[in-house]
Amino acid sequence: MIERGQPGSNAPSPLLRRTPLARGDGWTIHDCICTAGPNDRRFEERHDQVALALVTAGTFQYRTPAGEAVLYPGSYLLGNSNECFECGHTHSVGDRCIALHTSRELFEEVAASVAGSSRYTFQYPNLPARPELTALATSLCTVATRTGAPFAIDECVYTAVAAAIAALRSRVPSAGRLASADIRRLSAVLRYMDTHSANPLRLGQLANLAVMSKFHFLRTFRRMTGTTPYRYLLATRLRRAAAVIAHTREPISAIALNEGFNDLSSFNRYFRRMMKTTPIQYRSRFRQPFAVTKVQG
After folding, report:
1. Are 61 and 95 in contact (CB under 8 A)?
2. 117: CB partners within 8 A, 6+ apart
3. Which long-range contacts (CB under 8 A, 24 or more apart) does 15-23 make?
4. What are the tens digits of pLDDT across the range 122-170?
């Protein structure tokens, strides 16, 4: 999803719009919106730098020499420098990512401090929507949805993301291969959850949408996403609520209810547990130069 062009080229495609968010010495951050669909041809492309991308909307298939994966909101695309890859939208149209690119030397410098090796490469093509990354994903989504004057984003954003992914990737197993039918069905469920996250969603309802038994749905969902449907839904609601909190003066109680939380007290507890701060403090922090929430542990 990072670059789309002709075979052997990294020239941007008309199907991809990239908006710069930040740039530093050896790294960049872009908001990337792709409009490719099932009828668009796949091309083999190449990551010129180390690529880390948080998916914020849509689902798509991603293939590298490290393996294949389905990317969905809350998951991370991983790409090694000078590595070829392919992306495809077999089951849907479009996606959106916050894409970080960095030189191999800079990423290895960060990885050495958390993974114990300066010669670091990704052994898998993605990182699932782990609970440990919820706070980081929420902060990055808040950045991407900001309008008007940009945040004063500094080196801590890149460093926090790179360090978290390097640390987690070394101990998170791959989801493994899923049947094509399961990928198609779960992709539809993930898009439905993304669109209807503020509504009450029941396990039976989602399992029926996937045309699976509840047991098979839970097992397959967790295998693909690294979490349960309930925790995935809460994380989706949190990302959206946090962006509204940061960018508006709307009452937090109204935001919580609008995003699907049952009451303010439960929202406040969940927000504090995941973000290590209160909604009011989060709003205040985003009135200042941006500082991303770091991963704990």
Report:
1. no
2. 111
3. 15/40, 18/99, 21/98, 21/143, 21/144, 21/150, 21/153, 22/150, 22/151, 22/153, 22/154, 22/157, 22/158
4. 888 888 887 778 888 888 888 766 654 444 454 555 566 766 676 665 5
Task: Note whether 224 and 106 are within 8 A (CB).
Answer: no
Specify the pTM: 0.83
61 phi and psi, to 5 degrees? -100, 140
H, E, C per residue of the chain: CCCCCCCCCCCCCCCEEEEEEEEECCEEEEEEEECCCCCCCCCCEEECCEEEEEEEEECEEEEECCEEEEECCCCEEEECCCEEEEEECCCCCCEEEEEEEECHHHHHHHHHHHHCCCCCCCCCCEECCCHHHHHHHHHHHHHHCCCCCCCCCCHHHHHHHHHHHHHHHCCCCCCCCCCHHHHHHHHHHHHHHHHCCCCCCCHHHHHHHCCCCHHHHHHHHHHHHCCCHHHHHHHHHHHHHHHHHHHCCCCHHHHHHHCCCCCHHHHHHHHHHHHCCCHHHHHHHCCCCCCCCCCCC
285: tokens are 């922090």
Domains, in order of start, for the chain:
16-169 (2.60.120.810), 180-285 (1.10.10.60)
For the stretch 269-296, pLDDT in tens is: 999 999 999 999 999 887 654 444 444 4
pLDDT at residue 295, rounded to an integer: 43
> Which of 12-16, 37-41, 150-154, 202-206 is the most confident on average?
202-206
Q: What is the mean pLDDT of residues 1-6?
A: 41
Contact 44, 84 (CB under 8 A): yes
What one-letter code names the amino acid at 90?
T
Question: Identity (one letter) of the amino acid at 208?
Answer: N
